[in-house]
Amino acid sequence: MATTLDKVDVLTVGVGWTGGIVAAECAKSGLKVRGLERGEARGTEDYSMVHDEFRYAIRYELFQNLSRETITFRNNRQMNALPMRMMGSFLLGEGLGGAGTHWNGQNWRFLPYDFEIKSQTEKKYGKDKIGKDFLLQDWGITYDELEPYFTKFEYTAGISGEDTNPFWGKRSKPFPTPPMKKTPILEKFEKATTNLGYHPFMMPSANLSEPYENPDGSTIAACQYCGFCERFGCEYGAKSSAEITVVPTALETGNYDIRYHSNVVEVLKKGNKVTGVRFYDTVTGEEFIQPADVVVLTSYVLNNAKLLMVSNIGEQYDPDTGRGTLGKNYCYQILPGATGFFDDEQFNTYMGAGALGMTIDDFNGDSFDHSKLDFIHGASLSLTQPGLRPIAFNPVPPDTPAWGAEFKKASVHYYTRALSIGGQGASMPYKENYMSLDSTYKDAYGVPLLRLTYNFTDQDRALHKYLSERSAEIMKEMGANTIAPANPLTDYDIVPYQTTHNTGGTVMGNDPAISVVNTWLQHWDAENLFVVGAGNFAHNSGYNPTGTVGALAYRCAEGIIKYSKTGGSLV
Amino acid sequence: MSNEKEKQGVSRRDFLKTTGIATGTLIGGGIIGGLVGYNANKGSGKNEKTGETQQGQNHEINVGLQHFKTMKSFNILSQATERILPEDDLGPGAIGLGVPYFIDNQLAGAYGMNAKEYMQGPFEDGAVTQGYQSRLTRAQIFDQGIAKLEEEAQSRFKKGFEELEPDQMDEILTAFQKGEVKMEAVTSMFFFTLLRQATLEGAYSDPIYNGNRNMEGWKMKGFPGHQYSYAKDIESKEFIEYKPQSISSMTHK
Ligand SMILES: Cc1cc2nc3c(=O)[nH]c(=O)nc-3n(C[C@H](O)[C@H](O)[C@H](O)COP(=O)(O)OP(=O)(O)OC[C@H]3O[C@@H](n4cnc5c(N)ncnc54)[C@H](O)[C@@H]3O)c2cc1C
Ligand code: SF4
Question: Which of B21, B223, B230 shows the shortest C-beta gap to A236?
Fold first, then answer.
C-alpha cells in the first residue's frame, strides 16, 4: 500500500538545471516546492577526489546506473529494439544537479532562425527543400520573445563570453563576465579562420573567467583550467551548475525541500488535471504518493517522455499514420569535424576547461546560402581546449594500426601534437525517428523501458560531409601536417560516446496537433502539468542545448507562477 | 619546444595565495573542503621500519591476483597486453606498467561483474550499432577469451600462447580483432575491444589502480596527472612538463 504524503504546491521530478530553476523561481514567489530526485545529494565538497580520469570519465562515477534503468534502441522499425546495456552514445545524469554537474558548460542561445525554421526555410528555399518526411515545425515562439529568459539564465550562471558573433541573435545585455583566457591553441584557430574570411569569437562558457555573484546572491568561483571538466564535478565551484546556484537559492527561501532516493514511476491524472505522482524510495523500497497542485517533469528528455507514456498522458506518435505527438521529433546532434596532426609543434593539450574554445558560426543556421546544397542548417565549428586526458585521447594519423608498436609510438607522440575542430551539427526531425515504450524490457520497478528508434538521414550525411570539409580547410590553414576529416556518417551507433544532446519527444508549439506542450511548457491535455527540457525542441540546432533549455525553464517557471494564481490554460 | 626545467605544479599553499578563493571573498565551498581534508591527514605514507614509500619501490607486495586463479592465465593476459602496448625506447610496455595486475583487479570488482550494466534478458545478438548484448559478464568474457588465446596458439603453432614469437601472438590477436575466432555468447572482436581498452586504461589511469606504475605511462605522454590549477600557465606558448602527481597525494603526504 502506498503512503500518501502531504500535498505541495509545486512538485518537480528530478533536480538538475530545469528542476532547480523551476524550484528557485517558484519558491521565491512563495509557492511550496518539493523536488523528488532519484539520485543522491551532492555538492562541491564531494568533488575533491575528482582529478581521476579512470573513475569519473571512464567508469562513469557520476552517471545513471544502467542496471536499474536504461533505454532500448533500434535503427529502424524493422529491427528488434535491444537494451543499451552499457553507457555509450550519451551519458545520463543522476543525483543533485543532474547532467549539469558534469557538463562542459558550452552555453548557447539557439539562433532566431531556429524558432521559425519551417517558415523561414520555406520562404527562402521553397516548400520542398528537404522533403516532406522531415517534420520541420516552428516552435510557436520567437527568439525575441525568449530573449529575456536567455538573459536570465546567463546571469544566473554568470556566463563568460564576448558579443562579437555577427550571426547570433541580438542580446539585451552584455555577457555577465568577460571571456575566458585566449590560449595559443585558440589563437591558432582565430588566425586561420580570420585568414579564411570567417568570424571567430570566444565560446560562451559556464566555466567562469572570474569570480561572480549572481542576482540571487549565489557565488561562482573562477575557473582554474584544471583539465578535469567534462564528466567531472568542479572542485572549485567554478563551473555553473544547479547545486551551486538555483538549488541553494531555492533552499534559502524556506519554501523548498528535496527528497532524494525517490524514483518517480507514474504521473497520476484525473480528468483533465494531474493530482501528483507515485514514486518508490530506492533505499527502503517503500511506495509513496506525492500529491501536488502542479507537477513539473524535469527528469531530462528521455524520462520526461517515458513518464508521460507510462502514465497515458497525451497521444503516442505513430509513424505509420503521422498521428499523435508524444515521442515525435526525436533528434540528436550531428558531429562533423577534422583532426590535425602537427609534427613540429607541441601544445599544452592536457590543460584546459570544458568550454574553453573559439567558434565560428559562418556555417551555422542559415548564415550561409543553402540554395545549391542538399541540406539545411549547419553547425557551429569550434576548436576547444577541454583538457585532454590520456586514457581517452590516443590520436593517431589515418592508417596507423589500432594497437602494437606503431600505435604506441604515434599515440604517445601525438597526444600533445594533435588538435581537433569539432562541429555541433543541427539535427532535423524525421518521421521514422521517434520515442515510444518498449514492449519487452523493463526497469527495476517493472516499468517498461523507453525505446528509441533512430537513424541518421541523408540530410544529416550531407550536412556532416560539407561541414567536415570546411573543418579540414581550417585545419590546413592552421598548418597541420596531416589532416583527418571525420569519417563519413553511416548508421547511428549507440556504442561510441557522441553527445548527451538528445532532443524532442515532448515538443512545444502553438498547435496541439503537432506539439505536446504549449509555449509555456504547459501540457495541452492537463493544465497543471508542465514538461521542460530539450525534449521541448522541435529540432536540434547547431549548438549544445542547455542555454536554450535554461531559458525555457525560466519561462516555464513564470508560467507556473501565473498559473498558480489564475488557473486554466496560459494560451 | 619543451620547457627544459621540469616544472613543479602549483602547491596547495601557492594556490591559496594566488587564486584569492581562500581570502573569504568567494569561497564556492569545495576547494576549502578539499584542502581541509588534505591537511587533516598528514601521514607520510612511509613505512616506519623499512623507510620505503608506499608508491614505487615497494610495489610488489601491494599487488597480486584477485581474479585469475593460475599464473598461466595471468601470463597469457600479460603477453597479450604487451603486444597491444609493447615496451620500446619511449618507455615501458603494458607489463612494465603493471597493466595485467590492473586488469586482474578490475575483473574482480564492479567492472568484472557488470555491476552498473543492464543485464536483464532476453539476450539477442542484435546489430553492431546496438552494442554489447552478451549475457556474459566482462570477467566471464576475459576468462573465455584467454582460454581461446591458448587454444588458438595450440592449434596454430602447437605451443602455449606464452611461448609464441611476438609475430605469432600478433597473428592470433589480429584474428580475434577481426572476429574470426569462435567464442561462446560473445564475439572474439568484442573480447579484443575490451582487452585493448582495458590495456589503455591500465597504462594511463592513476597509479592507485595498480597500473601506470610509477606514473611511467603519464611520463611517456607528458600528462601531469592531478594538478590543482593551470590558470597561471594556460596562456604559455611553451610546452610545459610538470612533475606528475597522483590523486593519492590528496590522501597521503
Ligand atoms: C558529459 C556531458 C557534457 C555536456 N556538455 C554540455 C555543454 O557543454 N553544453 C550544453 O549545453 N550541454 C551539455 N550537456 C548537456 C546538459 O548537461 C543537459 O542539457 C542538462 O544538464 C539537462 O538538464 P535537465 O535538467 O534537463 O536534466 P538533468 O540534468 O539530466 O536532470 C534530470 C534529473 O532527473 C532525475 N531523474 C530522472 N528520472 C527520474 C525519475 N524517474 N524520478 C526521479 N528523478 C529522476 C535524474 O537523476 C537527474 O538528476 C552535457 C551533458 C553531458 C552528460
Ligand atoms: S576546468 Fe574550470 S570549471 Fe572545469 S572543473 Fe576545472 S576549474 Fe572547474
Answer: B21
* Inside any domain, residue A304: yes
Check CB contact under 8 Å for B130 and A73. yes
- Residue B15: which pLDDT band, with cuts at 50, 70 and 90? low
- In chain B, % of residues over pLDDT 70: 76
Residue A501 known to be catalytic = yes
Q: Under DSSP, is residue A207 helix (H, G, I), strand (E, B) or coil?
A: strand
Cβ atoms within 10 Å of A344's Cβ, excluding its own: 8
Query: Residue B6 — very low, low, confident or very high, per pLDDT cuts 50/70/90?
Result: low
Residue A265 lies in a domain: yes
Determine the Cα–Cα distance for residues B223 and A351; give it in Å rounded to an integer: 9
ipTM reported for the complex, 2 dp: 0.96
Domain of A16, CATH number, reads: 3.50.50.60
A237 contacts on B by Cβ (under 8 Å): 27-31
Q: Which residues pair with A337 in a beta bridge?
A: A422
Q: Are A153 and A105 in contact (CB under 8 A)?
A: no
Tell me the pairing of strands A3-4 and A8-13.
Answer: unpaired
Looking at residues A434-447, what average pLDDT do you find? Answer: 98
Residue of chain B with shortest Cα separation from A413? B221
- Give the total number of structural domains in chain A: 1
Task: Tell if the CB–CB gap between B231 and A409 is shorter than 8 Å.
Answer: no
Residue A571 lies in a domain: no
Distance from CA of A75 to the nearest CA of B (A): 8
Residues 6+ apart with CB under 8 A from A398: A482, A484
Q: Which domain holds residue A429?
A: 3-566
pLDDT per residue as tens digits for the range A517-563: 999 999 999 999 999 999 999 999 999 999 999 999 999 999 999 99
C-alpha A425/C-alpha A326 separation (Å) is 24
* Grid cell digits, residue A525: 491535455
pTM (2 d.p.): 0.94
Radius of gyration of chain B (CA): 22
Q: Phi/psi at A277 (nearest 5 deg)?
A: -135, 160
The single-letter DSSP state of residue A446 is S
